[in-house]
Write a structure and sequence with these properties.
This protein has twelve helices and nine strands. The strands form two sheets. The chain has a six-stranded parallel sheet, sandwiched between helices. It has a three-stranded antiparallel sheet with strand order 5-6-7. Helix 2 (50-58) packs across helix 12, helix 3 (73-85) packs across helix 4 and helix 7 crosses helix 8 (176-184). The chain is α/β, with parallel strands linked by helices and 266 residues long. Mean pLDDT is 91; it is low at 10-28.
């Protein structure tokens, strides 16, 4: 008998082919990857994360480059906290330089922030300032590289790095042509922001990871080592010869550490 002419045999054949197949609606869904929120620091902007963002997106992560206005720790943290609240799932919050002070404050009380990654960044204790921490150990030369302050008319000033000194001070391991463009497009920070005391060190309750360059001239490596160990960081990566913009010169290393943090979420 030809099977194709027997509807009962056809039904049995189809049933055997699909036996044990679980409908998509019943299949166990893979855990959603956390959203990565990147917060730039002083004298930079979100484009400083381009190399890191490209790698994270290729690995399947949703990435947001949050605007950091560089006006004050409190107001900048409130802005980033709003971005965090807009994300429904888990978040890994990443900060560079002064952005570390911002994420420390923004993550406090945010239940969906599951990890903090400090990239050549400040991780202040309550009452500490970025300016104070940068001078805690020798090695920082930022003060001598700043240009004349730009008064804002409210008692505060905008600070820039002199363009001629930018490459050596901020991005020594970045090609000169790229560093020149970074100098032109740098975002200023107020002196008030650098001297504003932090109030909420989220690294005390949220797991943290640190990466920085051994040749950082903005935040001395000894300061970063101190902060990382104080925070009981899950991992501390020191990149030999890297400048303050380790995420620009070594995006692969920084992206890997962020992925390590993201994979640690239970």
């Amino acid at each position: 008998m030809n099977v194709l002419n027997n509807p009962f045999r056809i039904a049995a054949l189809i049933g055997s082919l699909f036996a044990g197949v679980v409908p998509v609606s019943q299949a166990a869904a893979a855990p959603a990857k956390p959203t990565i929120i990147l917060v730039h620091g002083a004298f930079a902007d979100s484009s400083s994360w381009d190399g890191v963002s490209a790698r994270l997106e290729k690995a399947g992560y949703t990435v947001i480059g949050a605007a950091n206005h560089l006006r004050s720790v409190k107001s900048d943290a409130a802005s980033v906290a709003s971005v965090v609240k807009s994300v429904s799932g888990s978040v890994i919050l990443v900060g560079h330089s002064y952005g570390g002070s911002v994420i420390s404050e923004a993550a406090e009380g945010a239940g969906n922030v599951k990890g903090l990654v400090y990239v050549a960044a400040f991780a202040p204790e309550a009452g500490e300032t970025a300016a104070g921490l940068s001078g805690k150990f020798p090695g920082g030369t930022l003060g001598a590289a700043l240009s004349k302050p730009v008064p804002l008319g409210n008692g505060s000033n905008d600070l820039y790095i002199e363009q001629a000194k930018f490459h050596d001070q901020f991005a020594a391991d970045v090609p000169a042509d790229k560093a020149r463009l970074m100098a032109v497009g740098q975002r200023p920070i107020t002196d008030a922001a650098l001297n504003e005391a932090s109030t909420a060190p989220a690294w005390k309750t949220i797991p943290s990871w640190f990466v920085y360059g051994a040749a950082d001239k903005n935040i001395p490596p000894a300061v970063q080592d101190f902060m990382a160990k104080r925070a009981k960081a899950k991992d501390i990566v020191v990149v030999k010869g890297a400048s303050h913009v380790v995420m620009v010169s070594h995006p692969d290393v920084v992206a890997k550490l962020i992925e390590d943090a993201a994979r640690s979420i239970k």
